[in-house]
Amino acid sequence: MSASVKRKRLASGLTVTQKVFVRSRNGNATKIVREHYIRDDIPCFSKACESCTECYKPGPSGEVPHPILSESPLVLTKDKIGKHYVVIDTNIVLNAIDILENDKVFYDVIVPQTVLNEVRNRSYPIYMRLRTLTKNEEKRFVVFHNEFKVETYVPRKQGEIINDYNDRLIRHSAKYYHNHLLEAGISILLITGDKANKELAVKDGVMSYTIHEYIKLLPGSEELNDLLPSTENFEKQINEIKYPEYYSSARLMGGIKNGSLYQGNITISSYNFLEGSVTTSAIPKPLLILGRENLNRAFNGDNVVIELLPKSKWKKPSTQIIDEETVNKDGLGDDDDNEVIISDKERKLLTQEAIKAQTTGNEDEKISPTGRVVGIVKRSWRLYVGQLSPNAVNKNEVVSNSAKNCFVILMDRSLPKVRIRTRRAKELMGKRIVVAIDSWNSNSKFPSGHFVRTLGEIEDKDAEQEALLLEHDVEYRPFSKNVLACLPKEGHDWNVADYVSNGDDPLLEKRKDLRDRLICSIDPPGCVDIDDALHAKRLPNGNYEVGVHIADVTHFVKAGTPLDQEGASRGTSVYLVDKRIDMLPMLLGTDLCSLKPYVDRFAFSVLWEMDEDANILNVSFTKSIIKSREAFAYEQAQIRIDDQSQQDELTLGMRILLKLSKKLKQKRLDAGALNLASPEVKVHTDSETSDPNEVEIKKLLDTNSLVEEFMLCANISVARKIYDAFPQVAMLRRHGEPPATNFELLNDMLRIKKGLSISTESSKSLADSLDRCVDSKDPYFNTLIRIMATRCMMAAEYFASGNFSYAEFRHYGLAVDIYTHFTSPIRRYCDVVAHRQLAAAIDYEPLHEIHMDKTKMDLVVKNINKRHRNAQFAGRASIEYYVGQVMKNNQSDQEGYIIKVFSNGVVVLVPKYGVESLIKLEVLGDVNSAQFDEDNYTLEFSDKLGKRRSVSVFDRVEVSIQSILDDYTGKRRVQLLLK
Amino acid sequence: MVLSVAESAFIYDSLVASHPIRPDSREPTQYRPLKANCGFLPNSNGSSRIYNADGTECISSVKAKVIRSSEISDLINVEINIFGEKDNTTLCQHLTTLIKESLIDSFDFSVLKLTDKYYFQLYIDISILYLPEDFRYSSYTLYSILSLISMGVYIALKSAKLPLLISDKEDFEVEEEPTFSDDWEVSAFLIPRNSERSFQPALIFIVGLTGNTVIIDPSLEEEQVLEHGICVTWSNSRITAPVQSLSLSTANNKGLKPQMIMKAMDLVKNVACEVSDALNLIAQQDVNEFDTIF
């Protein structure tokens, strides 16, 4: 670039210049030249300025920006400053973001675009915090696009270092503001940490201060001084540990490419926070990462790069339970070995050894290759919920206002403590707080973060609920204005009759009127979002017409609208014990879409003609208008069917449905569908105070499976249809066949302890072998095995059909070749997509391009898979919390089963409450007397009375169960004691 | 434009005279006017544009790519595109080979070495935009543009810059993926500017011979009466391969005397330094990438 004029005028107020940079990607370097447009209509965002009024033009979304900086900003009497705005330099943001966020200082701040870009390149988390600040209008931070504004753009001088150039751009912006607002009587202060920059600014006639000088100018500066970054960085004082440095990105990319390093997501064991595993494509089984040094600051869920350790360090997987408490006491898990440089060639040889070690079934050398983390590609950092470590505050200490380092213990046990700096430690004690993580330097044993906000007292119902929503990344804020704007403006008064008589919808004539069919819905008691309804009637030819009618959500939720985007990002409704987080606004979910009885509703119907044996002879799909005759709860429906005095058409239809559903179920089971189990419980809450008071295991009625069978049937029929119409992008759901290795451990336990085995050849043989797993003395044993087998299964997942071959579409659990979710569009986004695709497949309306584009579909699918999983976890955590509350007051003795045995403890499942918990050896009895027989899954020890006792897997044990509050995590958890 | 017998006899006589007089009154060592500039293509690492008074114009571009190879012959790729000619004609292929070979012989490949495993690979694309219509298929065309191309490539290479490597240079034992600074301002010249590491890519000179006279850069008129032509390659302050005899005209075929070859080389030695200095000056001009694209 040269210093000569390099601009060209394109139109009035718009000129173009050039930006040249190097793009380094995949080891290649390309020179890139981009046009850089400069305009004269970028406003200064000051309310005091009148000359910029014409510059506020609507953006692409139609929103008109408005001035933000106050016309009467803070007045400083010292140095004759008067009213002033502040322009900040990059180093201020990087070093003192906390004070910028403080609500006492820093209002009316101008952030030049140059600063924003520099911050983004240096630290992404700080960039995100700055972004949040600029969006918060109360703090009056504005981003000034100085590099696009003709008055503030300056070309780079030849040979100028990029940092100098950026400083010059920032000074230039400050100078521009200075001159621009001279008339308005507002002065501009440039706050910078760079001495040279400050001097140059003063030379240019711009007032410039360091942050310390600036704070001194403010009234009440004493108090604020505490918030300033100390001159010596506090990170440097910490020197507890030396983690290995990460490899350079060049090294990582090179290593991944030539196959000597591997990339994957790390999962930290929930039993042992010093044991992680990484699944990579190169090695068949997950690779173990053991110990603090080898985990090297990785967080659960981070995308990491690992390398194999030399063979001498390969280990057996830990049979111990380790949590942070124990480790910090005795410094376990730190290994200090000298680093040896090994070449890529040796690394590759090592990989072959590793694969060999994993695949040989030789029991004696059951050694697992281990690796270590050498780089982190993407952090999974988000906001975390936790509480201050109990020893953070010295009770005798006089209250002081100085900031100090405290540790926050996170709710997720697989994560390390977080170091934060706060002056409010005393106040925060005993509260659930939200923290964000900023960095983890190699010389710090723990990551550093900062306090965000408090949720409330520990064990407070609302605080705990919010905590678990945050922990599971569930969006629970109310729907935004522009989302709600997409709803019908009639609100609850919207009805089908008005809509039809209005008659301006050309699609209406494609809708079939099914109001003559005797339709009813059957749902859990108290259900308000009724997704589905059914009907059946006998046809003149002796066959049956069976219809499944699903709420027509896509009539209201059109693709591409903000409402649709919100639904897509939420992915699913989340059901907590006493709270439901909706995917779609209430108006739709519980009223307009919900197939309520006695009123006309729009529906999407699947109609079959079935014969006496429930064979499908014919299927058709149509959008329809229906009128449900009755909304039953499962139990009510069961009573009505069983009551032989009821002989009306509706009841007869329901009996047909029941009869057919039983045949459908039998056929499914014959095909090898699995009947798995999970210890599901239901919490009864007091209807007035919503305090939990009872726990019961969910009961299943015939009518439950009646609905279920027809929903499965509808999902399968729809899946075939949309796959037929859209072979590349059809939204489907699959359930992979579990690899036999998943069952190895369970099978081994069964063989040794019970002489039984599970066959995993096919879902049919698995189902049959599960049926054979019975213990005549213990009726619960079969269910226990089913629960354990369920945990060996793969998780079912959504996918776009183009990503797998037809054979892989198979749903293993249901034993069908193709499957999707169609029947709950109010609470699942997959169903919404399936509805749109089906509507397009039957020529009802064309498919929106976002569901046609495979890459966009992949993103949707990835998100809903994640949301779906999180929703399940959140639901379980909510039940767990309430079970804890129920048990708080009633300690009881229950029957439990041992499902895992470690060398220093056992895991017991209590079916009655659906809880499982670890009993540590020190609680069981004498630690030193214990003998662990790993091959027989047996732990032998002397109990507290000195009696010799042995427990092994599958044993039925009496446990006393109580709920205790863990001081350390602030979590109530179930404590079991062996009787 | 074909000369009449009288015209060619006149030109021939004035050329073989003891004080040769060229039809355009040039000195034997004098070139026809040329115009050149560099940095013409903003997306290339280096580029040049050079044209003759008769309108023959040549654009050269140098682009660099990172490859994992140490095969020297892979590192320089030349492609020549001539207006109105197919890629596979003898003319194109001949020129391509000649330019490529002369560059390979004169190139200091250490400047292309990035790490133990990675090299920069150069793609030199040359485009001849215009040829005088009448002489598209004459031998004159070939040799006139050969000299032009060689000068164009010279400037393009001299002005070319390479991105700055910021990852480790030693990757023989442990693989590193090359990573570069994203600041184009810190890029370095492909051919270092300091005298110790600098070198000159090959320049090809066309010398016309007739009688005892040697002339540089024969014009269209002269070419029709010349007895012989020699192409002489010059790089790094000396004559290098290839030195080739060329049949510039078919009018006066006579034997080629060895001392004439020596004389031609002396002529090149005389002018070469001046030519390369002039070209260096052009290459060192401020590259004003912006003006040139609009």
From TrEMBL, chain A:
Cellular-component GO terms for this entry: cytoplasmic exosome (RNase complex); nuclear exosome (RNase complex); nucleolus
Alphabetical list of SMART domains matching this protein: PINc (SM00670), RNB (SM00955)
Gene3D superfamilies per UniProt: 2.40.50.690, 2.40.50.700, 5'-nuclease (3.40.50.1010), Nucleic acid-binding proteins (2.40.50.140)
Transmembrane stretches, start-end: none
Domain spans labelled RNB: 511-844
A single MF term (Gene Ontology): endonuclease activity
UniProt name for this protein: Ribosomal RNA-processing protein 44
Annotated GO biological process: CUT catabolic process; nuclear mRNA surveillance of mRNA 3'-end processing; rRNA catabolic process; rRNA processing
Localization of this protein: Cytoplasm; Nucleus, Nucleolus
UniProtKB keywords: Cytoplasm, Endonuclease, Exonuclease, Exosome, Hydrolase, Nuclease, Nucleus, RNA-binding, rRNA processing
Domain of life of the source: Eukaryota
Known cofactor(s): Mg(2+)
InterPro entries the record matches: Dis3_CSD2, NA-bd_OB-fold, PIN-like_dom_sf, PIN_dom, RNase_II/R, RNase_II/R_CS, RNR_Ribonuclease, Rrp44_CSD1
Family in the record: Belongs to the RNR ribonuclease family.
Domain PIN residues, every copy: 84-199
Automatic annotation (TrEMBL), chain B:
SUPFAM superfamilies referenced in this protein's UniProt entry, alphabetically: Ribonuclease PH domain 2-like, Ribosomal protein S5 domain 2-like
GO BP terms in the entry: exonucleolytic trimming to generate mature 3'-end of 5.8S rRNA from tricistronic rRNA transcript (SSU-rRNA, 5.8S rRNA, LSU-rRNA); nuclear mRNA surveillance; nuclear polyadenylation-dependent rRNA catabolic process; rRNA catabolic process; TRAMP-dependent tRNA surveillance pathway; U1 snRNA 3'-end processing; U4 snRNA 3'-end processing; U5 snRNA 3'-end processing
Residues in Exoribonuclease phosphorolytic domain copies: 30-163
InterPro entries registered for this protein in UniProt: ExoRNase_PH_dom1, ExoRNase_PH_dom2_sf, Exosome_comp_Rrp42_subfam, PNPase/RNase_PH_dom_sf, Ribosomal_Su5_D2-typ_SF
Subcellular localization(s) per the UniProt record: Cytoplasm; Nucleus, Nucleolus
Main localisation: cytoplasm
Coiled coil: none
Any one GO molecular function term: mRNA 3'-UTR AU-rich region binding
GO cellular component terms attached to this protein's record: cytoplasmic exosome (RNase complex); nuclear exosome (RNase complex); nucleolus
Pfam family, one: RNase_PH
Family according to the record: Belongs to the RNase PH family.
Protein known as: Ribosomal RNA-processing protein 42
Native organism: Pichia membranifaciens
